[in-house]
Specification:
heterodimer; A: alpha/beta; Rossmann fold; 2 domains; five-stranded parallel β-sheet; about 40% helix; B: alpha/beta; four-stranded antiparallel β-sheet; binds iron/sulfur cluster
């Protein structure tokens, strides 16, 4: 691993299908980005400089969800060429908003908009980890600047980047918020990884879990609390915003909803 | 203290206090006042790599914590003790030594449980001023508002309605210790049940005036010029808590981790300090998203314990 005396790490930055919001966050760290550009060898970044370099890469940082065969092929190629694959933001990490897509609904709309003979190129929006091994996920929709910088700094220091192992609830309490769950309002904060500073709750919205599921989260316990005041449908509408395509939802959350008894 | 009883008008007093000092009014906080003495994130040091030297931490300016109920005063007295062992916690006392604590109560008490000054309710607006420490006496002397009591008859003192049964249990700390320690092997059903409903979110430890666990995080600044060590609040219900270098985790399941919260507060703490680490402030009960109530749990456990151990 690199230390401050050795050669700069070569980092490739790519984006698949998404809104580019996380890359905008990367740009918005301003002078900190200048330091990053100085200490890393950043290549292949469409929004940054047009320095095109082939691998191997110390890390490929990838934003967005692969939804075409070309993107999936590129992802597999990047996996071959990179020591680490790091996902940037909820789309790449947990499929996020693109993952809401519902196949049967989509068929209906395709037929309506493009006619019955249209052959769609798009594939289900799945997280990067559905195709390749992902070494680390930088969570958030969009990512939090400080968490982004922390991850990159840990790479520079030769560490394996770490996850936040506490719930959004810590930052929610530090922000002085009343607990939504205690007021019979939906919130996924307790099962969600911290790091976002609980901005949604402070702004009056639920935590939708865009930072991904926290390690060893007690999902059935949260489902039990939610079901006391919210219907299965209502909970599903909220939870599928970000969790639609992750195994924790498909295997644990859904099951807990099904198993719920008053 | 033998000084003549003083009496103030609460709002007038607070306004003058704010003009003269940095005052943190704690009355509406969700978090316990420990947050100002043991903040959620504390920079332990900052190291300048180029100069190979520690940067000095910014000095702490004196401040007043205002409006603490009696149980919070008691909690800080305990926290002072916890933070003194085995060695004085430098970071805690760096702040603590600059703090003046003003209690506020409508309850009756014999011995002040802590703080530097206690304001005790006489009527809705008038409060008797009771200096507890030399710091409190000095503060009163700096205030123009303090005036001798006109001897307004004291109103009926209020009763504290927060966790009264837990408060009683705490008085029998030894039994409480035995019951909690007993429950792990002899009454595992309760811990199985709790592990099903506890979210493991850690809020109970964050809001508790006596929980004092932290984890250490080292980081380098992005320019690569300095590195920093931070101490961050931790909670024993979180999986990271008991993990040690190498990835081994001493408390593997949420059941074990949640039990540890009780074990530390009511058993280990009794062994170490002769007292449980709880003052029945009610915060963990009020803030738990799963509505877990430690008062009910402890009543349940002690009842079962007493029945099982009736000779
Ligand atoms: S509002 Fe949500 S994030 Fe905040 S404490 Fe309650 S459950 Fe946790
Ligand atoms: S509060 Fe929840 S949804 Fe909002 S940014 Fe944080 S993790 Fe994402
Ligand atoms: S606040 Fe409640 S749900 Fe959260 S860890 Fe504590 S007991 Fe469990
Ligand atoms: S009642 Fe709960 S929050 Fe208050 S001191 Fe006891 S354990 Fe801590
Ligand atoms: S109860 Fe848990 S969080 Fe609180 S001080 Fe003890 S070990 Fe730490």
């Amino acid at each position: 691993m690199q230390n401050r005396f050795s050669k700069k790490l070569k980092i490739a930055i790519y984006d698949f299908t998404d809104c580019e919001g996380c890359e905008v966050k990367l740009v918005s760290i301003k002078e900190r980005l200048v330091h990053l550009a100085d200490r890393f060898n950043i290549v292949n970044w469409r929004l940054g400089q047009e320095k095109i370099k082939d691998g191997p890469y110390a890390a490929a940082i990838i934003e967005g969800t692969p939804v075409t065969q070309d993107e999936i092929d590129l992802l597999r190629e990047l996996r071959e060429k990179s020591k680490l694959i790091i996902s940037l933001g909820a789309c790449a990490s947990i499929a996020g908003i693109p993952g809401i897509m519902n196949k049967s609904e989509r068929k209906k709309w395709y037929a309506k908009i493009y006619g019955a003979n249209y052959k769609p190129k798009g594939i289900d929006a799945l997280p990067l980890s559905a195709y390749v091994k992902v070494n680390h996920m930088i969570h958030g929709c969009p990512v939090d600047e400080d968490e982004l910088v922390r991850t990159l700094e840990e790479l520079l220091s030769g560490k394996t980047p770490r996850y936040r192992r506490y719930s959004v609830c810590l930052e929610c309490k530090l922000a002085g918020n009343q607990c939504r769950l205690l007021h019979k309002k939906i919130c996924f904060g307790p099962i969600t990884q911290g790091g976002c500073k609980a901005i949604c709750i402070s702004g009056g919205s639920p935590c939708y879990g865009c930072f991904g599921v926290r390690e060893e989260a007690n999902i059935p316990a949260l489902v039990k609390i939610l079901r006391r005041f919210a219907s299965e449908k209502e909970i599903n509408n909220h939870v599928t915003m970000f969790f639609n395509q992750i195994p924790e939802y498909k295997n644990v959350f859904k099951q807990a909803l099904k198993n719920y008894k008053k | 203290m033998t000084t003549a009883p003083l009496q103030i008008n609460l709002n007038g007093f607070l306004n003058e206090l704010k003009k003269k000092f940095v005052v943190i009014d704690c009355r509406k906080n969700i978090l316990a006042p420990k947050q100002y003495l043991f903040p959620a994130q504390e920079t332990a040091f900052n190291f300048d790599i180029k100069k190979s030297r520690l940067k000095t931490l910014p000095p702490i300016k004196p401040f007043i914590l205002f409006g603490l109920p009696l149980r919070d005063l008691e909690a800080i007295t305990r926290l002072d003790e916890i933070m003194s062992r085995p060695n004085k916690n430098y970071y805690y006392f760096r702040r603590r030594s600059k703090t003046t604590i003003i209690g506020l109560t409508d309850e009756q008490f014999n011995i002040p449980p802590g703080g530097d000054l206690i304001l005790q309710k006489l009527s809705p607006k008038d409060f008797a001023v009771m200096p507890v420490t030399a710091k409190g006496t000095v503060l009163i002397k700096k205030m123009a508002l303090a005036r001798p009591s006109k001897n307004i008859p004291a109103s009926q003192y209020a009763e504290n309605k927060t966790m009264p049964k837990l408060r009683l249990l705490l008085q029998d700390a030894e039994m409480l210790k035995d019951a909690v320690a007993w429950s792990w092997k002899n009454y595992p059903q309760i811990w199985d049940e709790l592990a099903k409903i506890c979210l493991g979110c850690g809020i109970c430890a964050y809001v508790c005036p006596l929980c004092h666990c932290f984890s250490t995080e080292d980081s380098m600044d992005i320019a690569g010029k300095s590195c920093k060590r931070c101490q961050n609040w931790a909670a024993c219900t979180l999986p990271e808590f008991s993990r040690v270098a190498g990835g081994h985790n001493f408390h593997k399941t949420l059941k074990e981790r949640y039990y540890n919260w009780f074990y530390h507060k009511f058993a280990r703490s009794y062994e170490e300090f002769g007292e449980p680490q709880c003052v029945a402030c009610g915060r963990c009960q009020a803030a738990c998203p799963a509505r877990i109530d430690i008062e009910k749990i402890l009543i349940n456990i002690t009842q079962k314990y007493k029945i099982a151990n009736r000779a």
